[in-house]
Design goal:
about 325 residues; alpha/beta; globular; binds nicotinamide-adenine-dinucleotide; binds uridine-5'-diphosphate
């Protein structure tokens, strides 16, 4: 296939490029580098099956030649209000990437008769009142809350994707991605794993926001990419949760990272660190992914963190 990947210079997008190139496809990457980096794609320079367009997906997209698949991953993704890469500080760009970017990429898929995959998020569930969250849980989101720029853009993106499927017959898929981590996450992007791993490797105390009782379920990137690729090859049009079922409190997560890295600086609680409406619990129900895709994560949290450490050491200049 000839595949367009938006957000290609980001964490997940760059891993997707690698995986789909390894499967023999031709990949067209697109990114405006608002949160991603050229260095994430540097190793693909010279690959004759890879091409790249620097372009903002909120503007009309023209791709010369045929396109067989479109994967829309372009969007700021960090909720940290203190990070310049977080969507709190990129509110309009975030809404435009989710709304206009989804419209434009769906337009490309429709024009080319291409299959389409939307990178949606567990944030469509907001601060959930049920745990684990199945795909038919409609969510608990404040449309004017501080997270709304991301959550509602993704909810709009899902609605538009289903509209293009139902009304125009576009062959669409929706991945609801839960917290994923691994190499090529930007150490400064403000999410929990980059913050914790950077702090641990620099021998600093880990900043646990609130009292650390909030939970997440962290999935290693290779597992997530496997799920995305299986979904792309499937015929499933309804949303599919992809993520780890291993729910862990943020305090326990921080302690795990300190143990694995041997960091003796401990933990510091930052009560005001939690962003408004920071979900208290998050864990996917992955029954649908198991049943339809035969997928579930394989890599333990311990192993995933071990595999991520060398990248962080390299970019932090520690080796
Ligand atoms: P990232 O910030 O590393 O990557 C996003 C990429 O999109 C960046 O390279 C950025 O420059 C690019 N981008 C943003 N707006 C753009 C625009 N208007 N035009 C062109 N490029 C643009 O984040 P990520 O973690 O790799 O997330 C990728 C996608 O996966 C996002 O859509 C995000 O919502 C979704 N997602 C990620 C996670 C996760 O845990 N990593 C969880 C749920 C959903
Ligand atoms: N968090 C934390 N310390 C940090 C960064 C994040 O305790 O240095 C918490 C944050 O408040 C949230 C959880 O970790 O409860 C996960 O945050 P992340 O930014 O990774 O993404 P989210 O799951 O909220 O989208």
């Amino acid at each position: 296939m000839r595949i367009l990947i938006t957000g290609a210079a980001g964490f997940l997008g760059s891993h997707l490029c690698d995986r789909l190139l390894a499967e023999g496809h031709e990949v067209i990457g697109m990114d405006n580098f608002i949160t991603g980096k050229p260095s994430n794609l540097a190793h693909l320079v010279g690959n004759e099956r890879f091409s790249f367009y620097r372009h903002d997906v909120s503007n009309y997209i023209f791709v010369p030649g045929k396109v067989d698949a479109v994967l829309h991953f372009a969007s700021p993704a960090s909720p940290n209000p203190n990070s310049p890469y977080g969507y709190f500080n990129l509110p309009i760009q975030t809404m435009k990437a989710g709304a206009l970017g989804t419209h434009n990429t769906l337009g490309v898929a429709k024009a080319h008769g291409a299959r389409y995959l939307l990178a949606s998020t567990s944030e469509v569930y907001g601060d959930p009142t049920v745990c684990p969250q199945p795909e038919d849980y409609p969510g608990n989101v404040d449309p004017i809350g501080p997270r709304a720029v991301y959550d509602e853009a993704k909810r709009f993106a899902e609605a538009l994707t289903m509209a293009y499927h139902r009304y125009h017959g576009v062959d669409t898929r929706i991945a609801r991605i839960f917290n994923t981590y691994g190499p090529r996450m930007d150490p400064d992007d403000g999410r929990a794993l980059p913050n914790f791993l950077k702090q641990a490797l620099l021998g600093q105390p880990l900043t646990v926001y609130g009292d650390g009782s909030q939970t997440r379920s962290f999935c290693y990137v290779d597992d997530l990419i496997e799920g995305i690729v299986r979904l792309l090859y499937s015929d499933e049009h309804l949303p599919v949760n992809l993520g780890s079922q291993h729910e862990i409190s943020l305090l326990e997560f921080a302690e795990t990272i300190n143990r694995i890295t041997g960091n003796k600086a401990g933990i510091v609680f930052v009560p005001e660190g939690r962003s408004p409406r920071d979900p208290q619990r998050r864990q996917p129900d992955i029954t649908r992914a198991r049943t339809i895709l035969g997928w579930e994560p394989r890599i333990s949290l311990e192993e995933g963190i071990q595999r991520t450490i060398p990248y962080f050491k390299k970019v932090l200049g520690l080796e």
